[in-house]
Design a protein that fits this description.
11 helices, about 160 residues, globular, about 0% strand
Length: about 160
Amino acid sequence: LQKLIHLLQATDDPLIQEQALITLSNSAAFSVNQDIIRNLDGLSVIGGMLSDCVPKVKEKALNAFNNLSMNIKNQEEIQVYITQVCRNVESAPLNSDLQLAGLRLLTNMSVTSDYHHKMINSIPCFLHLISEGTERTQIQVLKVLVNLSANPAMTGHLLRAQV
């Protein structure tokens, strides 16, 4: 895993980045690897990939974060990227794999109310996606909104949101 993280840092080749992120994502299916990746500073390396201009690289980074976000300690580090993930969801092509990957991560990150406040500004986007998105997109957005609606502190933000 350490060599994979170093490879991800060292290369600018999007195909290698994609493959390294896919492998990290698959490795993160095992809880012991989730801790190892975090302890090797892999979360910040993966987070750096969210700024990549290649959509497939961003998508694979979001998928890796999605698997890694099943761990509370990882969530504490991943939460610094929530605003950037929301921007990626908003700017991604409608119904794209990139958009869905971002929404899946936001679903995991919104299971507890700890980071809901970081998603407030994206509520209008979420509502827009419900009206314009495909069924897959709508279902994923609804999962995020259901999680947000479970938090009484979010009620006003949800009711006042304009599409």
